[in-house]
Each structure stands twice: as structure tokens, then as C-alpha cells.
Amino acid sequence: MTAQLHKEIQLANRPEGMPTNDDFNFVEKEIPIPAENEVLLKTLYLSVDPYMRGRMRDVKSYIPPFELNQALTGGLLAEVVESRSDLFEKGDIVSSNLSWAEYNVANASKLQKIDPTAASITAHLSVLGLTGLTAYFGLLDIANPQAGETVVVSGAAGAVGSIVGQIAKIKGTRVVGIAGSDDKIDYLINELGFDAAVNYKKDSFKEDLINALPDGVDVYFDNVGGDISDAVIRQLNKHARISLCGAISSYNNEEGDLGPRMQGQFIRTSTMMKGFTLGDYAKELPAGVAALTQWLQEGKLKYDETIVEGFENTPEAFLGLFKGTNLGKQLVKVADPEFAKL
Amino acid sequence: MTAQLHKEIQLANRPEGMPTNDDFNFVEKEIPIPAENEVLLKTLYLSVDPYMRGRMRDVKSYIPPFELNQALTGGLLAEVVESRSDLFEKGDIVSSNLSWAEYNVANASKLQKIDPTAASITAHLSVLGLTGLTAYFGLLDIANPQAGETVVVSGAAGAVGSIVGQIAKIKGTRVVGIAGSDDKIDYLINELGFDAAVNYKKDSFKEDLINALPDGVDVYFDNVGGDISDAVIRQLNKHARISLCGAISSYNNEEGDLGPRMQGQFIRTSTMMKGFTLGDYAKELPAGVAALTQWLQEGKLKYDETIVEGFENTPEAFLGLFKGTNLGKQLVKVADPEFAKL
Predict the structure, then answer these.
(1) Cα of A338 to nearest chain B Cα, Å
(2) Where are the domains of chain B?
(3) Model confidence at B1: pLDDT above 60
(4) What is the ipTM of this complex?
(5) Pick from B244, B263, B272: which is nearest to A267 by CB?
């Protein structure tokens, strides 16, 4: 009997600067066989996320680096196609953090079962998953926006940013988004209800930003860092709060770039800036999921997905994050389920 | 009858870069005459402070700029030499924020009476005044150091830094100071009980700093900014807190200098950084004074003063702050009291 084969995506090189397709290697392997308490999972959707760029670098960080010539790992949705656990049966849909592979074997304890009738299953990789939770805790716990304040969000049309802006609106603030195309600006204002949005690729960006901020900035939710953040920071009000979620502008910069020192301004304005990762909120995640689920059901939260079809296009989808090709959450559709009806 | 004359120090120019003696102008004026509810004050001691450099610049900040050809103002200790208020009598010692002048007239409501028997009166311009309170709230409220953590203080031998380090020791932390001479290093370790101290003027500074921080940095109380802070920030632990009190390294830099962007590292370490000024704690000042007074009486807080003699040397004393010539609080002794016995 011939073992069945599938593919996984390995890290072929540690990229210097912007990663390329050559940094990823598709390797054929035997489909693994589940042991006691394990299940065999068929991957349906993969999540590609900017933070993964950091894990490609061999440096100490809050999560260990990816290993060379080993499968990359990330958030995914999968269908149970074989179960040796009492907790799962064929056709169950689960979310977990597993290898970028067409199939995975996993212990039942590592899996979270998803109710496919409650929302689109992909919501569990976006608004109800790490993305939505990152927006929820990063905005509310760190920046605590108050009704009437001005909240600025960079990377506003991205997965996290688009949720941040909507939560800020729910809290009664004035929300100004920063994004990189006129289509995204239109989307933020007309689809998501942002009060204003500014295109950072325009020559008039700094002027446009100032015009969009007649009352300055009370809260800045920062996904990007770099020059964009420098421009926002110049407009901070007294007692401003900055929630640092990402710095995508520098993820592919090996040197560590230079920017204006901000200490003097932070003193003058009593500004607080804090970085975070979702791990800081491990104990509070259920409360976040509950709040996001409720807002989603009440129609107060919209979410968009950019879905690339085909496992072979996963590297392309990942690289697109750094070019801003995605609107909302970037996902890869790997396969349809065999047993589940979605 | 001829009016009596005295001198005040006016801002002659808005300095560009490092101020010089030429930026100050000594102007002779008539000694003012107190009206109803006012007193005439003879200045005994003046406080010179780094934050005053910011007020010499014509920019919006948390306090308005000094006016050209008007007297500079600052913290001072004075003796009541004539009183038209029921609240004060000749020989009372008061602290207030008034003109850099040999005499001031002030409304009684603006003055705080000092008990000259409780502590040396100059303590009210240092450990029990704005200096001590700045150390107290900036360290405890913003950084909340926990026993066993490592606290780094820059400008450690200065007025604020030396108090910060001692409060951090009272809280059971390991304290590492940064200062600019071997005498200061010796003072921090052998007089104030710091666990370690590093001279930033040595070529081996970065190496020495790393060696002094075997367990990294949990709290950084920053008086200086610039390269020194860059070096400390590279050693931050997860969940580090940075209290931004001053950025003296850039106060005389008109361009706004560049430094490594810190957002990425703050995200990896979930670091929090906050600027403050003492005005943020206006309602809580009495609690701070009470705590500092108690520690002082218990012998847990030492404070040092560098006292320059003579009103005419006030500009020199101020300029010395940027050269690090002071150990502890820099004061100017203007005159002896006429009536009070100290």
C-alpha cells in the first residue's frame, strides 16, 4: 500500500530585506497518521500575518524563530478527516496554530472546535480570531478611548486596523484612518463609517493628515511605524496614548532605521506609548471573543477578507501584506471540506 | 526720598543651541512696594532647573515660554521683609515660583510658608520640593517598580535622579545609575547605596552598562534621552516601563535629533513608555510631600546640593546643568535673611 503524499511549506532561507518566493520551499511528504487522542486534519484556510516576518529572523523575541528547512506555522482552519479522539468526529471544523501544510496531525487538546452555523467559518481567522482580539485589547486596554476623543489608526484598511476603527466608533470617538490607496480611503469612510481617512502615498499626506485632525490626536493605534507614525506623533494632544501593535514599515529593514527622537514631545504632552502582543492577554481572551461576537451579531462590526485561492499561492499572499494588496484579512483558501457542509 | 534699587535677570535673547551668559540681562529696577494682602520678599535661594531651557524657546508647551526682556521665573526661597497680609509676618520663610530678582512682591495666596525647624530650608527647593516630587510620582506612579526588579536611572547624580535611585532602593529593587564622572559614580555607589553605576563618558560605556545589567532592565527612569537612552532601551526586559522625566541631551538641539526607532522593540517586549510633568499630579502633591518627609526623617533619603554663591552667578549655575557640573540639586544662594534665624 502506497502512503499518500501532501505538501508543506518550509522556510528555505532567512530573508534579508523583503522576502521573495525563493525563501519558501514546497516539500512533498507522506500524510501523517494520527495516534491515540490525535486527529488528521485537512487544511481549509490559512492565515498569513505580518508578524510572521519577525519569526523568519534568527533573533530572540516573544516567540521563537521559525527553523530553516522546517514547515512554517500559523493560524488555520481545518476539517477533521480522521479522528482517534472522543472529542472530535469527521467533518468537525477546528481552528489551531499548525504547520503550513495540506494535512496536519494534532492532539485533540490543541484544537478549538468551531460552530459553522454561528458565523462564516473564516471569521474565526479574522474578526473572532487573533485579528479581532488584537484590535480589541490593543485599543481598549492600552488606549482606553473616551467618547469625543480623536482616534487615529494606521494600516486602517488591514485586518486589525479595520476592526480597531470600528470598535473606536462603537466607543463614540472620532476615527481617522490612514491607508495606501484611494479605494481603501473610500472603503474606510463609506463602508466602515470612519469619520475621515488619509492616503499616505499622496504627496500631500502630511497636509491632509493635519487637515483631518482639527482637534489633534488623543489615541493612536499604530500598525506601521516609520514616517507615517512620525507625522501622527507630531499632532498628539496632552495625555495622548499610543498602542503599538505593529511596525510593518520596518519589518524588512535589516539595519534598524532612524527616526526623530520622541522623548521630548512625550514629556511635553505626557504621552503614553505601549507595545503589546496578544500573549499579554492570554487570560482575558474569552471576554474579548464574547464582546466581538456580540458586536458582530448586532451588525456593529463589518469585516472583509481578501482570499487567495490555492495552497501554492500562500507565499504570494504573504508577500502581498508588505505591498498592501489586501483589504481586511488576508487568507489563503487551500481546499474545500470533504464531509462538512458549510 | 529715593526709591531703593535691586536687580532682576531678564531673558535677553532666545538662545539657539547651548545658551550663553549673553542670553541673560541684569536689569536694575526699583524695589516694588506691596499692596493690600501682598508681602515684600527678599530672595534667599534660587533653583535653576533644566526644564527652564524649554521655556526659552518660543513654542507651545505645557507651560508658556519666557518673554523676551522680561524677568525669568523659577522656584525660590525668600524671607518676608514687609507684610501687608495677616497670614505672614517679617522673618517668615516662604517658597514660591517668582521672578529671578533680589526682591519680589507677591500676593499671600501664592506663597507656601516653610517651617525652618523641620529640615534645612533648601530641602524645600530639592528633596521636599518639585525635585523630590518629580522623582516620587515619575518613578512610583508611572513605573511602579517591584522588589527584585532592576531599575536604571540616567542623570543619576542629578537632583531628580539621585532621589529616584534612593526611592527605588526603598522599594527593594536593584538600582543602576548612569552619570558622567568617576566622582559621581563613586558618590552613587558609596554615598547613596546604588547597586551599580556606569560612567557614560567612558569609551567602554555600552559594555560597562551591559555588564551592570545581568538581569536586563525592568524600569528605566530617563532624565537625559539621546544615545544613553538608546543603550538602555536595547536591554529592556519583557513588560519594561520607561518613565520620561527629561531629555537634557536634546534641549539645546534646535534641529530635533534622530535616533533608532523603538517601536519594534517595544512590541516584542510589551514595553510601556510615558512622559510626564509634575502638573499631572497636582492633586496628589500633598501625599508625595508626606512620603518624602517621612523617608527623610527616617534617614532613608539623602540629598546633596551644589550651591553657587551670589545672584550674579545665576546664569553660570544654570549653564552648568548642561555640563553636568552639579551633584544633586543646583541652587544659587542670593542673600542671607534679615530677620529669620536659620
Answers:
(1) 40
(2) 5-126+304-333, 130-297
(3) no
(4) 0.88
(5) B244
